[in-house]
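Homework-ish question, so no full write-ups if that breaks the rules, but can someone show me the predicted structure for this set?
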Amino acid sequence: MNKIDTRGMSCPQPVLMTKKAIDQSPEGLEILAGDNTAKNNIKRFLESKGFSVEIEEINEEFILKAIK
Amino acid sequence: MQSKKGIIATGAAIGLIAVLLVKMGNPANMGFCIACFIRDIAGGLGLHRAAVVQYLRPEIMGLVLGAFIAAKAGKEFSSRGGSSPMTRFFLGIIVMIGALMFLGCPLRMILRLAGGDLNALVGIVGFAAGIYIGVLFLNKGFSLKRTYRLPDFEGYAFPLFNIFLMVLLVAAPAFVIFSESGPGSMYAPIAIALAAGLVVGFLAQKSRLCCVGGTRDMILFRDNYLLLGFLAIFVFAAIGNIATGMFSLGFEGQPVAHTDGLWNFLGMAVVGWGSVLLGGCPLRQLILAGEGNSDSAITFFGMLVGAGFAHNFSLAASPKGATVNGQIAIAICIVVLLAISAANIEKTPFKSKGDLS
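A: Not a homework solution, just the prediction itself:
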C-alpha cells in the first residue's frame, strides 16, 4: 500500500499531498498525520472522495488507512 | 466542534462579539482586527511613534491565551517549530504591510463589509486574487517544509509573553505609550476585551477557523468548511450592526478606511498571497502560536516589526489614502512574495526531509 508522511506540514499541504497520492493509488493508501487538524482535514477530504477511513493513534500521531 | 455547526457557531460568536466590542468602545468596524491590534501593540511598546495608534490591545493576548487554554484542555498543545522561521518572519512583515495598506486584516475586512463599507468588497476581490496566486504555487509544490517537536518551553514562551503584555497593560509603566486621541484611544474596558479574546481564541482553536483557509480550500478541494465560518462572521456582524444602528452602506466616509480601490485591492492581494504561503490568516497564526507553534509566534513578531516599519517609514495608509512610500513597499512585497514562492517549490512533492520511507 502506498504510504505518505504529512507530519509537520502547514495547512493545506497534508490534504494536498493526500489528493496527489490518491491520484497515483486510487485503491487506497496509508497516511501519517502529525496532529489533530491534519488528521481531521485528511479524513474529511478522503470521505468526500468515497473512501472509508480507519484511524490509529500512536504517541499523539495518527495513521489513517484509506480504503475504497 | 469540528462540525459545520461548530464552525458556524464560532463565526456567529465572533461576528456578535465584534459588534459588542465596538459598542463598548473599540473603533468602528474594528471589534477585532489582528493587524490593527498588533500595530497598536507595536506603538504601545514604542516600536513606532504614530501617536494615534498606540495601545496594548488585550484582545490579542486573550486570543492567544484562549487558544492556549483550549489546546491544553483538548490535549492538543504541542511545542513545535522549525519550518523556515526566517521566511515566516519576513512573510509576517509583508502581510502586515499589505494589511496596513488596506487598513485591516482579513477578519476586519469582513467586519468592515458587515458594517456597510463597500471598499471592503474591493479588498475581498484582491484577497481572493492573492489566495488564487498562492494556491497556484501550492499546486506547483510550494512548501516551507516540516515543523518538528521541540522542548516544551519553546511552546510556552509565547503564551507567557502574552501574560507579560497583560501585566504591562494593567501596571501601565511610564514607558508604555497609550494614545490620547485617534483609534488607539478608543477601546473597550480591559476585562471585556480580554474576555472577548479568550472566548474567540478558545472557539477558534476548537473549530480551526481561518479567514484565508475558506477561499483556499474552496479553490483547492471544493471544501466549504472554513468558508462557512467566514460567512457566518459576516452575517452575524451585519445583523448586529443593523440592530444597533451601526450599519452605514457606501464607499465614502467609512471609519478607519480609504476609498483608493487599486491600493485596497493590492494591499489585500498581498495579505491573501502571504497568508496562503504561511498556511493561515493572521488570526490563525495567533491561534497556532497559542497551541505551541513557535513558527507562528515568529510570524507574530514579523507582523509586529512590520507594523513598526509601516509607521516609521510612512508605508501605512490612512483615511486620506495610500502614501507613495506605501505604494513602493507594496511593489517590493509583491516581488519578495514571488521570490519566496518560487524559491520554495519542492522538486519531488512526495519526498521531503524527515520522511519515514
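Now go work out the reasoning yourself. Hint: Residues 119-139 of chain B form the longest helix (21 residues).
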